[in-house]
Design goal:
The protein is of the alpha/beta class. It has six helices and eight strands; from the N terminus they run ααβαβαββββαββα. The relative contact order is 0.18.
Length: 182
């Protein structure tokens, strides 16, 4: 009965339960991240914040493309660049928008606790894997997660008055996901 109940829980709720297990997590995007990767990293951070899990957002490579740099600038995002695996904090890793760590020295030593992706490949997380190759963007998976959990997007002007409310979708995250899906 317990296995049946667990298997019937939505991916969003299983992922939230995983986030709740940790005090700290590292979110790792693919090399040279695009708006899909950046918005999904923002989504993990938002979900983790709701259960008081600290996150750091990392990427290997560079944010070179003009559109990608504009995305980072307009949404006032802060990501940490990774050149070697030793640049990553000593906390469990969640991969978003790719399913195998790559693009930096020592990437093969990273054993992700979770993988959320839409690209084909064989990578899996130790405790959670949600790879949907029929989706056009990883951001669409996270948009579905927020919908399944009943999180509603709010007007930016209302955000400050809602401090401490866990079931609202920050306008920056909603904007990022929409752009990532497009």
């Amino acid at each position: 009965v317990l296995v049946w109940r667990w298997s019937r829980r939505s991916s969003a709720h299983r992922f939230m339960k995983l986030l709740n297990k940790y005090d700290e997590l590292t979110v790792l995007m693919h090399p040279n991240p695009d708006p899909d990767a950046m918005s999904t990293a923002m989504a993990v951070e938002s979900m983790a914040d709701s259960v008081d899990t600290e996150t750091t957002l990392h990427y290997p490579g560079q944010i070179r493309h003009q559109e990608n740099r504009a995305f980072e600038t307009v949404l006032d995002l802060e990501f940490d660049r990774v050149e070697t695996s030793s640049d990553l904090p000593d906390s469990p890793v969640v991969l978003v928008d790719h399913n195998e760590p790559r693009g930096f020295a020592g990437s093969d030593s990273v054993d992700p606790v979770a993988v959320i992706d839409h690209h084909p490949g064989g990578g899996e997380g130790r405790q959670f894997t949600d790879v949907r190759t029929d989706n056009g963007a990883c951001a669409s998976i996270f948009a579905e997660y927020f919908e399944e959990m009943g999180w509603e997007p709010v007007d930016p002007d209302e955000m400050e008055s809602l401090d401490g409310t866990d079931d609202v979708l920050d306008p920056k995250v909603a904007t990022g996901l929409l752009y990532g899906i497009q």
